[in-house]
Amino acid sequence: MGKIILVLILLLAVTGVGLYLANSSESLFFDTAPWVLLVAAGVGIVLGAVRGLRKRKPVIVDGMVIRHGVGSFVAHWGSAIGIFTLIASGIILGFLFIGPFAKTAAEVVFPLNMHFIGLAVTLFAGCFWAADFLVSRNYGSLVPNINDIIGGTLGKYLLRRKWSSEGKYLSSQKSAFLAFIVLGGGILVTGAIKVAAHIWPIQASVYGVTTYIHDILSFLFILLLIVHVLLVVVLGHWKAFRSFFTGKISEEYVEEEHPVWYEELKRGGG
Hints:
Helix content is 73%, strand content 3%. It is mainly α and 270 residues long. The chain has a domain at 1-58 and 68-137. A 3-stranded antiparallel β-sheet has the order 1-2-3. Strand 1 (60-61) and strand 2 (64-66) form a beta hairpin. The model has no long low-confidence stretch (mean pLDDT 88).
């Protein structure tokens, strides 16, 4: 728990320093320091790969399942801090029918630099997770199959049918993961084109279409994020939520809510 608190403080401190620099700068980071984004992604990849190679499998200790390590915390909450920074700055800049709240060239500098900081943090955490995920090769734990989508998500929540084939991640979580990856990937690609416009000349029509697609995908991502949070609140998944802070969850809860994963743990897998 102590390590997790230190990591949280570090993540918030780095973001805070970045936002302070963003507020005090008169130049755009996208113009003056685009290399920072590559460094953030590169460091995330290296650290994530190391974590994936050294990561231990979840185990049951004294009635508790050691579910998340510090690395999971970095990936989840680092991405959360970066994404919420991106959303806040995006709203200030304006997209689709929202805003803009920054109306002059001078007013745009801070939210754009804020967007840069959010992107750097998200790239670090996202690349950390991706490298860890790929190196670990445990794709089935998080990538949904057709049964997860139809039976474990649509059938369980919309049709209220019984569904007990839950692994480490609920079928609905796996389905949400797929949706986040698709939308996030589209946002990343269109965002990369917009960043490239600060380095190379891009036709105004191409930039305009790219911005429109970027905004639509961002709006859908925000809606999905709201649904994701509401499901945690409405369905009462607080024990699973707390495990992202404590790293542990009770064996009894795992046996009841994640029976497939529980059997894997009992066999020494997981």
